[in-house]
Every structure is written in structure tokens, then in C-alpha cells.
Amino acid sequence: MTPSSLGILGGGQLAQMLALAALPLGVRAVVLEPDPQAPARLCAEHIHAAYTDPNGLDHLAACDAVTLEFENVPVEALARLEGRVPVRPGGTLLARSRHRAREKEALRAAGVGTAPFVPIEAEADLPDALEQVGGRGLLKTSELGYDGKGQARVNSAVELNAAWERLGRVPCVLEGLVAFEREVSLGVARTAAGEVAFGPLVENTHRDGILRTSVFPARVPGGTEDQARDLARRVAEAWGLAGLLTLEFFQLPGGELLVNEVAPRVHNSGHLTQDGGGISQFEAQVRAVLGLGLTDWFPLHPCAMVNVVGTADGSEPDWAAIDALPGTRRHLYHKAPRPGRKLGHVNLVAPERETLHARLAELERLIP
Questions:
Q1: Would you say the C-alpha torsion 210, 212, 217, 218 has a positive or negative sign?
Q2: From CA 336, how far away is CA 328, in angstroms rounded?
Q3: Where does residue 49 fall: left (phi above 0), alpha (psi -120 to 50 degrees), or beta otherwise?
Q4: Matching fold, domains 116-176 and 182-366
Q5: Residue 147 scores a pLDDT above 80
Q6: Span 303-316, average pLDDT
Q7: DSSP states of 189-257 as a string?
Q8: What is 116-176's CATH topology?
């Protein structure tokens, strides 16, 4: 029998888009989210309760499977669900990916390269740490932190000590700076039975620590996508993935890929798959979690995505001009605006690369 219900821990925009992708498959979504204004409430059953609420978790446990839209799920929630309903990805993988130092150690164990790093657990770890990573680096909190939050660039021992104090003296990881040519990402999905599928290799640019644009196809040397798929498969199999995860890479001048971060879920850089043709990353996660037939989610046309982020002056994009630009489609999250908050994205599809990049330049001009 085809599964009919999917539980989701979290009710933000990723849960909203997962729920919308599940509906055409005959699957209804149930989200557990404490925010009364959760974006996913508009298209899914919304359990308005804390993530650790026993009744809310019991409701999720009645679904065919449970997935997530963010990795920092309280361990108590996962413990209550364990053994009652498949949770994909599972608690072991989540514990690894939510902690930057453990994540990098596990990547190295799977045979995947990363930037040089040193865990900073206590003040005694600070001396000589910067020299171990090449003299310059990024200090990041081991847990939490996203979109540029919870991190600081450091170029001296004095800056490192000050940054650790500023971040609250919590466990961190110090990463060496890497001279890369571009940032790319790729998603991999795997069912509990071991079936594997891949998303496209996407080229990403950031602004103020937040993803600004994603473009497919990526402008990379030949063989780069095969390399990314090989590394993604290694991680998926070594970590026992059931569900979907996204790897963010640094592409070095010689073509080598280093993994920067791993997200055990759909990712902002994969939003362009909604409109590029074929299935989306959201349908891929639903399929992987519920054990439905998997296939690569690969755009049929050149496509791009631009994030819509809240501005300090409250200015909005020129929606009339955006809608008039051929190939655009907006996706808004129904979230109250505030500076630095992701409020939506606009996807762009074009018949060939040259047209895509010309229209993308115009689209970026229309979005603050």
C-alpha cells in the first residue's frame, strides 16, 4: 500500500515545500512546530506544540515515517519517536551533522576531504590552533549557527581569543581558509533499502553569509560532477543515510572538491529544481523517506534561483518587473519581514545558458 502520511519535525518554508511536493503523491503532511505562524500550516496539518511535546510526538508517531526540515531537533524528541516510527534521516546521522567538528571527522573517516580544522573545546585548545590550520581561519560554533551566524574570521591569536570570548566560550571548530574558485553543492538521496539518486551540481554565490544565487549548470571543469557524486555516495553509504542530504563543496583551482558543510535535508541551493523540469528536491526527499521509487532530480533546462531576504529599510523587490521577466516564478514563504530573514525566492528558467545569465543579471538588479 502506498504510504499516506509524512510527519515533519519543523514547520518553516522547507516543510511547506515538502508538504506541497507530497500532496500530488497522495501523501498528506503533518508538521510539529511551536511557531503559531509556521509557513507550513497553510498546506499541512499543523500540530502547534513544542518539539518535545509528548502528545505532539505521539501524533507524529502515527505517520508512516517522519523526516525533518532542520537538524537541531531536540534529542528528547528523537528518543520518544525511536522504535515507533521510521525517522529518516535518523538520530545518529543528525547527531553527527549538527556538530561541525564531529561532522568533519566523519567526513574524513568516509574518505572525503575537508578544509584543515581543529576542534576548540576549551581555552587550553586555543594556543597554536591557528598555526595548525595555516595561520588564518574561521572560528565557528560547533552547534547551531547558520547563514553566517555563529562564526568569525580570525587572522591572529589575539583575534582568535577575542572571537572565542565573543561566541560565548562554547565548543567551536577552527577551520583553515581555503583558496577556492567557486562554491558548488549537490544533493544525494538514499532509501532504507539502499537505492541512491542524485540532484544536480549547482554553483552558489553568497552575500553577507547568506546564499544569494544558485545556478545550474555549474561552470566547472569536466569530471567535477562525477567527482561530487562519488563523494556524496561515499558519505551517504558510510553514514547509513535514509532520506536526503546536501553537500556543499569548495572547488579548488585544480578541480578537487572539498566538503565544506553537510545538511541532512533539502537545501536552499536546490530550490531551482522546483521549476527546471523533472522532479524537485522536495519530491526526492519525500520519495526517499517513504521508500517510493527514486530517480535523479535533474533539471531539463538551465535554471537559477535568487533569494529574497529582508532588508534594513524594508524595501521590496520590483515584483511587477520580476513577473514580466520571461522564465521567472516566485515562491514566497508567508513570513513577517525582518532584516536578514529569508522571505522567499525567485526561480528563473531559460532555454540556454547565455540567456539564463543575461536574465539572471536583470533579476538580481530587481531584488535588493
A1: negative
A2: 23
A3: beta
A4: no
A5: no
A6: 96
A7: EE-TT--EEE---EEEEEETTEEEEEEES----TTHHHHHHHHHHHHHHHTT--EEEEEEEEEPTTS-E
A8: Dna Ligase; domain 1 (3.30.1490)
Dist. CA 232–CA 246, nearest whole Å: 8
CA dihedral 338, 339, 341, 346 (to 10 degrees): 100
Confidence of residue 345 (pLDDT cuts 50, 70, 90): very high
Grid coordinates representing 125? 585548545
Across the strands, what pairs with 248?
Answer: 185, 261
State percent of the chain over pLDDT 70: 98
In whole angstroms, what is the distance from residue 41 CA to residue 30 CA?
Answer: 9
pLDDT greater than 80 at residue 149 = no
Cα 38 → chain centroid: 19
Give the start-to-end residue ranges of the domains of the chain.
Answer: 5-87, 116-176, 182-366
Q: Is 312 exposed, middle or buried (0-12, 13-18, 19+ CB in 10 A)?
A: exposed
Rounded to two decimals, what is the model's pTM?
Answer: 0.94
Which amino acid is located at 194 in the chain? G
If you count them, how many residues does the chain have? 368
CB proximity list for 275: less than 8 A, separation 6 or greater = 303, 329, 347, 349
So what's the architecture of 5-87 in CATH?
3-Layer(aba) Sandwich (3.40)
From residue 187, how far is each of 25, 177, 219, 307 by CA, in Å?
21, 24, 17, 19
pLDDT at 310 over 80: yes
Is residue 110 within 8 Å of 235, Cβ to Cβ? yes
CATH homologous superfamily, domain 182-366: ATP-grasp fold, B domain (3.30.470.20)
Q: Which ranges in the chain belong to alpha helices (H)?
A: 13-22, 54-61, 75-81, 91-97, 100-109, 129-132, 157-166, 224-238, 281-290, 319-324, 353-366
pLDDT of residue 349: 98
pLDDT value at position 98?
87
Find where cell 578541480 sits.
Answer: 255
Helix (H) or strand (E) holding 261: strand 257-263
